[in-house]
Structures are given as structure tokens and as C-alpha cells.
Amino acid sequence: MSKLALCLSGGAARGAFHLGILAYLEDKAIEIEAYSGSSIGAIISCSHASGIEARKQLEIFKSDEIRKPLKFNYFKNGLLRINKEHHLLDTLLPIKNIQDIPKSVHINAYDTKAKKINYFNEGDTQTLCIASSALIPIFRPIHYEHKYLIDGGFFDNMPITPLQNKNYEIYCIDLMPKSDKNQKNRFDLLKPLKKRLFQTRINNGNYSIQHCDIYITHPNLRQTSMFTFNGLQETFDLGYNEAPKYFS
Questions:
Q1: Is it true that the peptide bond before 137 is cis, omega within 30 degrees of 0?
Q2: What distance in Å separates the CA atoms of residue 48 and residue 164, rounded to the nearest whole number?
Q3: Which of 28, 179, 212, 246 is most buried when burial is the number of CB atoms within 10 A of its CB?
Q4: Is 144 helix (H, G, I), strand (E, B) or coil?
Q5: CA-to-CA distance for 228 and 247, rounded, in angstroms?
Q6: What Å distances lie between residue 188 and 20, 194, 196, CA to CA?
Q7: How far from chain centre, in Å, is Cα 145?
Q8: Cα separations (Å) of 81 from 27, 133, 160, 170, 227?
Q9: Cβ-contact 80, 71 below 8 angstroms
Q10: What is the DSSP annotation of 65-134?
Q11: pTM given for the model
């Protein structure tokens, strides 16, 4: 296999699907050269590239302790609320700066001040992971180096761009599989501004699907709640059992 790069989408608790695939790659000793992620995909990317194995991450996410610094929000569009001061975050994201992580990692966040998406491969790991998961209006933007950052998945939930033109074989793993009927109904109900934002996200998602080498998702993810810690093992197992179809 040529150099493997993973693009991990956002999707809150569905991130356990990412972890199942990563656990399979570990078991088969398949090396990952680079990661790009949004929201929970950013957190998992930085953690795994820092040497935290997938089953260890699952153990952290399933623990009672993680519910203190990291909570899934019970809103239709909610993602994560993270308390940076809690010690367990250091276990999940132990390397302070992204550029010091042994593997190449990019994570995205949107700068509301400059009105542009940013793909970070350097900077404070924990702060930028929090920013990549900060969805307005539920959260205030994260102020970082003169930027006001919010969830990158709002605009680019599967950020393939940083991985392109680098001789990688790119696998995109999508926690938000399309349902044409539901998507059309939801799209029709949106106000014009939200419709433009939603269309940007759709366009970026389609671009990633069209330009990756392998696209991985599963329809069962549509029935998997994004906002509860219950069912993480089942979602992990779904990812683990799906992985052999794509990796050899």
C-alpha cells in the first residue's frame, strides 16, 4: 500500500466508528502517514497521531471521568463542550503543539473574523481541537492568535484539502452519510443564509468524496445518536467490522 492518509469527519459520538477503523489498522500493522480531521475527527486524529491507541481512546470516551471535561450537547446541531482545565484532556491530547506530533496532522476551524476556513498543522493542540469542535451559536468563538474560531465542520466536515498533492492514498471516513430524502426536506426548510452555509458544506463534502481514493461510511450511522456516550462500543464494532472491506 502507498502512503496512507486518513481524513476523519466530524460527527460527535459517532467518532467511535473512526476508532473501530483505527483499531483494525493497528491490529494489521497498517501504518498511517498523515491525518486531517474536523471536530471529533480532529480530536481523534491528534490523539492517535500522538500515540494514543484507538482502544485507549475508546476507554477514555467510555469512562465516567471524560463526562466531566467533555460533554455531548443535546441540541440538534450540537457537538462538543470541552473543559480544557481537566487533567484527562492531557491524557487524550498529550502533545502540546501540533507541529511536535510525530505524524503529519491538519485540523480545521473557521475564522469568523476573516470569514475563511483554516487548516492548522501547527499551534496549540488542545485549543485548536476545542476550536474545531466549537459550534455557534451554542458556543462562543475561541479567540486564538487574533482569530475567532468556530467548528470547521460547519463548512468543511471532511477536510481533504490538506492531504492533496502529496502522494498519499487518501481514505475519507464520513460519520454523516447522506440521506437524499431527509437532506432535501431539511434543505427546503432552511432560511436563505443557512441554506448558503449548508450548500457550502454539501459542496465541500461532495468534493472530498470525488477526490479521495477510498470513501468509507455506513448507513447505520444515520441511526446512531451523536449526542450520547451510550452505544460507543457498538459504533466502534461497526467501524472495526467495516474496515476489512477497504484495507488489505
A1: yes
A2: 21
A3: 212
A4: strand
A5: 29
A6: 35, 11, 12
A7: 22
A8: 31, 8, 25, 29, 11
A9: yes
A10: GGGTTEEE--STT--EEE-TTSTHHHHHS--SBGGGSSSEEEEEEEETTTTEEEEESSSBHHHHHHHHT-
A11: 0.89
